[in-house]
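Before the break, one more example. Copy the sequence into your notebook; we will annotate it together after we see the structure.
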Amino acid sequence: IEDALEGVTHSMCTLEFEVHRPLYDWVVDRMDEMGMLVVRNGVKIRPQQREFARLNLTYTVMSKRRLLQLVEEGHVSGWDDPRMPTVCGLRRRGYTPEAIRDFGERIGVSKYESETDVALLEYCLRDDLNKRALRRMAVLDPVKVVIDNYPEGQVEYVEVLNNPEDPAAGTRQVPFSREVYIEREDFMEVPVKKFFRMAPGQEVRLRAACLFTCTHVVKDDAGVVTEIHGTYDPASKGGNAADGRKIKGTMHWVSAAHAVPFEVRLYDRLFTVPNPMADDTRDFTEFLNPDSLTCVTAWGEPVLAQAQPGERFQFERIGYFCADTEDSRPGKPVFNRTVPLKDSWSKAAQK
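Here is what the structure looks like once it is written out:
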């Protein structure tokens, strides 16, 4: 009745309302007989109901009733929790409108009940952010590297591209000193085959800074590496060898003396199985991913301290991150992982 009175041309709804279409048409016919349909530009507007299949994404639930249950039972922090498939949740996680629209265009509209792999949505997001997100260096699990032949107290500023995909984004100056942090996973004391990152005797490139070779390590009483020592090639400023030798491993880093600490929330998929509603004998909450949120303290370039809420970055070699719109403040940023650079879930599923 409301559609007819307001001159709605098409009423779009999901497939469960298909059985209601005869009643819908009957009501419109009766209103037409009573002359109650809207006439616009000399044309009588007769509303039509059309149905389409609802969107089903893997590794989450789309039912409002199920999402409400997650909120009320405290499995998530609210409707805008970055793990939720809500507009406010996606926005807070760092999704862009362009990525969501691209995803919608790719999957189209269908009357066939299907399940869309969330990896496609993440692909659309990576494709969009790759073009627009500024690059920054940050270390989530740091181990200290000491360059023994670099002058103590000396600080240099190296020039780094803000976005290789966008020359207009320009460059930035990043401080470099004798001690830097790298990711712990980027070092192996006994490297496996085809490990091209840092290892004793193996030369690597510290991004945009220099070439470095590990000579020895310092460990604590438990045998955990606490410091990596080595030397750099003074002729390799900018990260390129003067004699043109090829270096296979390039690593990101932050200067230990200049790095700023901040909270990073590593969001992952909300459920451990693609379809948590598939097993009728178990409650869907039994499939919640206990590792869907991990909080760590990271160290990053000084410029990251002034990130504005909602500002998006690519942390080089790690993933895309967004300054949280609720808890992040300039001077004390909090970053949400929007999406990793690679889809680790697809690889795990294939094993």
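The domain at 2-52 is CATH 3.40.50.620 (Rossmann fold). The chain has a mean pLDDT of 95. Try to locate both features in your own notes.
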